[in-house]
Amino acid sequence: SGQKVCYGGLKHSCYKLAYFQDLSRRVGFEEARQACEMDGGALLSVESEAEQQLIENMLQNLTKSGSGISDGDFWIGLWRSGNELATSSPCPNLYKWADGSISPFRNWYTDEPSCGSEACVVMYHQPTANPGLGGPYLYQWNDDRCNMKH
Predict the structure, then answer these.
(1) 147 φψ region: left (φ > 0), alpha (ψ -120 to 50), beta (else)
(2) pLDDT tens across 54-68, in order?
(3) How many domains does the chain contain in total?
């Protein structure tokens, strides 16, 4: 399930937001990716500042709609495979879009990505968290363990 929003004339004309208040319904990265593909889409590639702003506005509208949306990060389609750590490239350069997009746009939170065992990326959505060094944990990106439930 999820809320589908469509726009005319954009490269990605439709977006579907899936937010689960019930923690038991949240899923890991791979499950989220498969659910999007079964639905005929892909996990989100955010390819520009304008698209990032569009997504932020959609999340703000979802919050305003009285649906009770609270803390809960959202998977996006950015990840790195663990076997690339042996390369000489700096870790942040190893992240790729799951749908094959080559967009270089990134919106990392301060001090992210932390790399290590965290290889899949979320868009922060923690309105009740105390702000950190990079400000509120809202809409910037963070690498997380792929088996975390979001």
Answers:
(1) alpha
(2) 999 988 887 776 666
(3) 1
